Amino acid sequence: MPSFSHLNADGNPSMVDVGAKAATRRTARARTVVALGPDIMQHLSGSDINTKKGPVFQTAIIAGTMAAKRTDDLIPLCHSLGLDNCQITITTDGADAIVDCLVSTEGKTGVEMEALVGASVAALTIYDMCKAFSHDIVIKETKLMEKTGGKRDFRRDV
After folding, report:
1. What residues does the Molybdopterin cofactor biosynthesis C (MoaC) domain cover (predicted)?
2. What residue ranges define each of the domains in the chain, with the CATH number in brackets?
């Protein structure tokens, strides 16, 4: 029976002790879908939207990467991890922007939270940079798509 890993025997919040675990290759990919709508998508030129603040998707990639590297500052019980890689891609599908964040490290704990934070902050940056065009933007979903390393691998098909 699975149990919550961030509670100690007394039921209080606690960081998981990973000291005895062996370091292994860990990867995770998270996705966030941002519904921009046709009013914003009409400004798409090539593979980006240019605003007075700068190129939206390029800026979101930088913001998401910075956030993934600082996940332990944002999520209280996350371990500090040195990421070996963080790749964020943003594609469009109709009136949606699809943000994928792939992270990897060699470590004792997974990088799912880093991938989720990277994708989320990239999506929030898209919202911030596009809100002058329209506030009818919806950050629809953020989900873990896959992870490798640790106790078990995971892959979501959709």
Report:
1. 15-150
2. 24-148 (3.30.70.640)
